[in-house]
Design a protein that fits this description.
This protein is α/β, with parallel strands linked by helices and 399 residues long. It has a domain at 71-172: Conserved hypothetical protein from pyrococcus furiosus pfu- 392566-001, ParB domain (Alpha-Beta Complex), CATH 3.90.1530. It has helices at residues 44-53, 55-67, 99-107, 133-144, 174-184, 194-206, 214-228, 250-254, 258-271, 279-294, 301-315, 318-335, 349-359; strands at 78-83, 117-122, 126-131, 163-170, 232-233, 246-247, 375-378, 383-386. It is elongated and about 80 Å long.
């Protein structure tokens, strides 16, 4: 690979420039909640009073009152005891049974998390599913093999006669079933954020001492590694606020293996301790860790130092590096005549950083495969297009 011609007056080996520490103690720690129990509760009276004071709520409620609408008890959903063998799943509404999903539930079985079934009681078909067909299948399997037993520990005679609760009402219209399905799958519901998801998983392990779910234990271990390097996920309240060593890109953290998280947090806290932990750091360390481990190549402290120095001296911040690669990706595609709506390519960050490192004279061992990614050759024109050739190091990406 030919040497990269840097437009800045920077030559390899790059030297990392130490910066004064902005804060002796991370100011976010006073708000951090994933290592403590919040022992406060709100009553329904508190919530009702809050709702009644909100102008948008009172306006919406007033409009309903003006319509003269009345909701009778028989029109409301309630818990109905059904015979499991009578529960039918309409193919016109429900997806096919996902057996890998069933296996996943069984591998992480928690009896307290088995949901109530949902549907309507149709006058002809009987209990008809609008959601939770997989829960119904799990219940049937557990009764069938004798894991779910009666209060005396005896196996039930058959799963068909087992009684279970369904949330719904009597109706002769499958429109009600479809509306239930939409609501159960998010229509009209406030979606759970990525932060709230890991918060509940982690507190289940840390506060409630429940280690029955493997995925909850795993994400808690990952957070423990991040915390050991002084890196913390931002709560939704502070998602748009910058704190040093803190991150709001929860999905990038959650999908990274624990080895990559350790590398990313070590890199961040050692060299970019005054900056937020940008999502690109998860991306390129996930790719570097994967590429190196595939060929059993060690990621040395020297390599980490030199990569950090390269980013700092050429781009100043990880955010600016990300913006530079995104711009280069767009120009690289244009040069090859590739038409795409993609504005960025997350998988390019790691290979681009490693290729820059080698092009600038880096001497640490690198997987050859990472030097071949995002390199395209036009055989007819005898032209090779390398993504990193389109990086504009002189452009100011970060203000």
């Amino acid at each position: 690979m030919e040497a990269l011609e840097l437009k800045l007056v920077n030559t390899f080996p790059f030297k990392w420039k130490e910066m004064p520490v902005a804060f002796a103690t991370n100011p976010y720690l006073q708000y951090y909640e994933l290592n403590k129990y919040v022992a406060t509760f709100r009553t329904m009276k508190d919530n009702l009073e809050t709702a009644c004071k909100d102008s948008a709520v009172t306006v919406a409620l007033g409009k309903l009152i003006d319509t003269g609408i009345k909701i009778f008890p028989h029109e409301m959903n309630r818990a109905i005891t059904i015979r499991l063998g009578d529960y039918v799943i309409p193919d016109d509404l429900q997806r096919i049974l996902d057996t890998p999903h069933l296996a996943s539930i069984l591998n992480n079985l928690n009896p307290t998390c088995l949901d109530i079934l949902k549907g309507i009681v149709h006058p002809v078909l009987g209990p008809s599913s609008s959601d939770a067909q997989h829960t119904a299948a799990i219940i049937a399997l557990l009764v069938h093999v004798g894991i779910i037993v009666d209060e005396n520990g005896n196996k039930y005679d058959n799963w068909q006669d087992y009684e279970y609760q369904m949330w719904g009402r009597e109706s002769d219209s499958f429109a009600d079933c479809r509306i239930q399905f939409q609501v159960s799958n998010g229509d009209g519901k406030k979606a759970q954020t990525a932060y709230m998801k890991i918060k509940n998983q982690i507190k289940t392990v840390r506060i409630d001492k429940d280690t029955s779910n493997k995925s909850h234990v795993e994400i808690t271990k990952k957070l423990g590694v991040a915390e050991s390097y002084g890196c913390y996920p931002l709560s939704d309240k502070f998602a748009n606020t910058e704190f040093p060593n803190c991150f709001s890109h929860i999905n990038g953290f959650a999908k990274s293996p624990i080895e990559a998280i350790e590398l990313a947090c070590k890199y961040q806290s050692t060299y970019f301790y005054n900056d937020e932990l940008n999502s690109v750091v998860w991306s390129f360390w996930r790719q570097i860790q994967s590429g190196f481990s595939l060929y059993n190549i060690q990621i040395t402290d020297k390599l980490m130092y030199e990569l950090a120095s390269l980013v700092q001296r050429v781009f100043k911040t990880n955010y600016a590096f990300k913006e530079a690669i995104d711009a280069a990706f767009k120009e690289w595609n244009a040069a090859r005549g590739v038409v795409t709506d993609k504005k960025r390519e997350e998988a390019a960050y790691g290979p681009a950083l490693i290729q820059m490192y080698k092009s600038c004279g880096g001497t640490e061992q690198i997987p050859r495969s990472m030097l071949q990614e995002y390199v395209s050759t036009d055989i007819l024109q005898s032209v090779t297009y390398c993504l990193i050739d389109y990086i504009d190091e002189a452009r100011i990406y970060y203000v």
